[in-house]
Amino acid sequence: MWISKLKLDLRSKAVRRDLASPYEMHRTLSRAVSQALKEGSERLLWRLEPTRGTESPVVLVQTLTLPDWDALEKGYAEVYPPKLFQPALWEGQILRFRLRANPSKRARDRGERVALKTQEEKLAWLARKLEDGGFHLGKEAGQYRATIRQDTFLEVRKAGHIIQVQAVLFEGTLEVVDPAKAIETLKRGIGPGKALGLGLLSLHP
After folding, report:
1. Which residue, of 95, 99, 133, 175, has the greatest Cβ tally within 10 A?
2. What's residue 87's pLDDT?
């Protein structure tokens, strides 16, 4: 896997367009791995990182193949050289994590995906997803070892309508339970909405 960091230039009209539309952002970033996407050998994940008000927006991008950021429009972003990401995971390893995801469920009557409402529901969703993905989100004094740093809604246009998609930024610590499964989870991401900048799981010692 490769990790790229892009510091966006707000003077770019294309950047302002992409920040207003996650689908457009995904389309722009996909240009860097367009051939691999056509061949079906790519799984692009990205996340708009939390920044302070006066800082330039930063996008973190994870790809399975080496991206070619020359494909971006000139002046779009300051691109830091992509770094090869080959995590060495082992059972029992404790790591910090960050994940922006869409904690949701299918409504039984309509079949539509609906956002979870309470903090407890969202953290329980996170714990289940991590458990399915080869990790364990432990508890301390009855509380999950994770916090919700941001909880917002993305507005996206679909079939001529504007819909809202919940985007929750989780941070905390987790334990690696199944290293092989965990690597696959890192590659494919967690939860729905990958094209909206959701699902990229980042790990840190």
Report:
1. 99
2. 92
